[in-house]
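tool_call: predict_structure(chain=1)
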Amino acid sequence: MKGLLIRDAQESDREAIREVTLSAFQEYAARMPAHWDDYRQGVLATLANVTPAEQIVAEQEGAVAGAVLLYPAGAVFSPPNRPPMILAWPEARLLAVSPAARGLGIGGALMRECIRRARRSGSAALTLHTSDVMQVAMRMYERMGFVRAPELDFHPSEDLTVKGYRLNLEVAPP
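tool_result:
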């Protein structure tokens, strides 16, 4: 994609990342009204301290157009209403693309960078979590070779399943 730079985030990107992420996820507020406030607060808390993740941005024409977090294997993950767990593989989280930049391949470019970094780390897999309200993202993940991994699912509430997906990195990418 012309003019797109995938790079590590810098401290000066923090506010732009927050704005892009919140604007990207805002569309889900109406689709998950009972969960939106908690979800938004979780996003803000995660972005306030991304350690130990690598924060990766997509910069287009000098502006942050997308971002993703890549947590290393061994990081502790504390899903809602479930005991903390240690990630067996690297995990991509909070993939976000500015609504104005959607459809340009930015999400795919960020995920390919996560895949590249996970492979470089020697990991056998890359995981992520998503939910049914994120159908466009789910289709992209599946096109990239991610498969459902129900053993990674968690349930923040009785009426919400956050679905786990895994990409086997020991095979050639599709």
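agent: The longest helix spans residues 106-120. Proceeding to next step.
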